[in-house]
Design brief:
alpha/beta; eight-stranded mixed sheet; six-stranded mixed sheet; 14 strands
Length: about 400
C-alpha cells in the first residue's frame, strides 16, 4: 500500500495545531487544535472532515508529549492513527531556519542542533517548534519528519535586500540580516495568484500582503521572493496587532536612557504592547472598525497609521518589481476586512490599482479577483493555506520513495 498521508504539526508555546491530509487528492481528513497546554483548562478540539463531526476534550494536558498522544488517540478513533501504514511523514512548521535551511529538510540530529542554535533570533517560536518535533520523533522514530521553514521562501532575496547597512564582519558574526517570515503563506499565495490569472508563477510579479495579527508584505518576481517586510525577527515592517513594525532604532536608546526602561521592558513594549493595540487599545480589526463607525478618533488614527504603512510598502515593492501583475491580500484581516483592502489601494489608481466595490464586499473561501474588469493590475483575495503548503512540500520531499514502491 502506498503511503500518501501527511500529518502537519504547528507547535506553539502552549498550543498544538494539526491537520491530516491525503496527498493523492490534497484532501483534508482531520483537523484539530490543542490549546492552553500546561494549564488546568486545556482543550482539545478534533474534527473529522468527511462527516464534520467534532469532539472536544476539556481538562489538564500537562505538556506537548501528552498533547500529541491525545491527538494520536483522537485520530485512532477515526481509523487514522499514527501507526497507519498510509502515513508517509510528519511535516513540522519551523519559524526560523536562518540561511542554512533554504528548502524542506528531513530532520536528523544535525538539523535539530541548527534549529536550536537559531533560538536567540526566534526565542518565542523555535523552542516550541523543537518541542513538537522531538515529541513526534519519540512517538514515531521510524517515520520521516520534515521541517518546513517560514524563512526558506525568502532566502532568494538578493544581498542588496537582505543586508542591513551595518559593519559586515559584525553582522556576519552574529548572523544579523533580514530573513523574513510567513514564507509558507507567501509561497502558497503567490503561486495561487498566478493560477488565478491563468499564468505560470515564473511569468507573474506579485505583491503579497499577509495581514493578520502578525503582518508582512513580500515582492515576488517570477515565483521568487526578492524583498519582504519582516527582518531579523518578525518585528520589522508593517503595523501589526501588537508589534510596532518599522521604527527608528534610536527610539530604543531613547527609552533606555531617558525613560529608564530595561531591554526586556522595551522588547515587551515593541512586541506585545505596540501596533494597533498600543495605538488604540484594540488589536482586533473588527473592533477597531466598530469604534471608527461610532466616531472614535483614537481608533481612526490607529487605522490611518496602519493603512499609511501598508500603502508605503505597496509603493516600495511596486518600485522594486518594476512591473506588477497582481496585489494579493491574504490571512485573517486580508481575507475578511473589505474596508482594509479598499483603503489600502485608495488613491493608487495612477499605479493601476483599484477595487470594484461589489466584488470587494463579497465574502467567500475561494480565491477571487476584486479589481474592475480590464484593470492594469489585478487585485485579488487569496485565502492562505499554510498547512497545505507544508504538506505539499513534505510529500514532495519524502513521497517519491512511496510512489516508487
Amino acid at each position: 500500500m502506498n503511503a500518501t498521508r501527511v500529518l502537519v504539526l504547528n507547535s506553539g508555546s502552549s498550543s498544538l495545531k494539526y491537520q491530516l491530509l491525503d496527498m493523492r487528492d490534497a484532501s483534508r481528513l482531520a483537523v484539530g487544535l490543542v490549546e492552553r497546554i500546561g494549564e488546568q483548562t486545556s482543550r482539545l478540539k478534533h474534527t473529522l472532515v468527511s462527516s464534520g463531526d467534532t469532539r472536544e476534550q476539556n481538562g489538564p494536558i500537562a505538556d506537548h508529549d501528552a498533547a500529541l498522544k491525545a491527538v494520536a488517540e483522537e485520530l485512532a478513533k477515526d481509523g487514522l492513527g499514527l501507526d497507519s501504514p498510509e502515513l508517509a511523514a510528519i511535516g513540522h512548521r519551523v519559524v526560523h531556519g536562518g540561511m542554512f535551511f533554504t528548502e524542506p529538510t528531513v530532520i536528523d540530529d544535525a538539523v535539530l542542533t541548527e534549529i536550536e542554535r537559531l533560538i536567540p533570533v526566534a526565542p518565542l517560536h523555535n523552542p516550541a517548534n523543537l518541542t513538537g518535533i522531538r515529541t513526534a520523533m519519540a512517538l514515531r522514530p521510524d517515520l520521516p519528519q520534515v521541517a518546513v521553514f517560514d524563512t526558506a521562501f525568502h532566502t532568494t532575496m538578493p544581498e542588496s535586500a537582505a543586508r542591513y547597512a551595518i559593519e559586515t564582519k559584525l553582522a556576519d558574526r552574529y548572523r544579523v540580516r533580514r530573513y523574513g517570515f510567513h514564507g509558507t503563506s507567501h509561497a502558497y499565495v503567490s503561486r495561487r495568484t498566478a493560477e488565478l490569472l491563468g499564468k505560470a508563477p515564473e511569468d507573474v510579479n506579485v505583491i503579497v500582503l499577509h495581514l493578520g495579527n502578525g503582518a508582512s508584505a513580500s515582492a515576488v518576481r517570477g515565483g521568487r521572493c526578492v524583498d519582504t517586510s519582516m527582518g531579523l525577527t518578525p518585528l520589522e515592517g508593517l503595523v501589526m496587532g501588537t508589534r510596532s513594525g518599522d521604527l527608528d532604532p534610536a527610539v530604543i536608546f531613547h527609552l533606555q536612557r531617558v525613560g529608564g526602561m530595561s531591554m526586556d521592558e522595551i522588547d515587551t513594549l515593541l512586541n506585545k504592547r505596540s501596533g494597533l493595540f498600543g495605538l488604540c487599545g484594540d488589536n482586533d480589526m473588527r473592533e477597531i472598525r466598530r469604534r471608527m463607525d461610532e466616531g472614535d478618533e483614537q481608533a481612526r488614527l490607529a487605522f490611518d497609521i496602519y493603512i499609511h504603512r501598508l500603502k508605503k510598502y505597496i509603493g516600495a515593492y511596486y518600485a522594486v518589481l518594476g512591473r506588477v501583475d497582481a496585489v494579493a491580500f491574504t490571512a485573517g484581516v486580508g481575507e475578511n476586512a473589505d474596508f482594509v483592502r479598499a483603503a489600502a489601494v485608495a488613491g493608487l489608481e495612477g499605479l493601476g490599482l483599484a477595487v470594484d466595490g461589489g466584488r470587494n464586499a463579497v465574502r467567500g473561501d475561494e480565491a477571487r479577483l476584486i479589481s474592475p474588469d480590464g484593470a492594469r493590475v489585478a487585485v485579488a483575495v487569496v485565502p492562505t493555506d499554510e498547512e497545505m503548503e507544508i504538506a505539499g512540500q513534505t510529500y514532495a520531499l519524502v513521497g517519491k520513495d512511496n510512489r516508487d514502491n
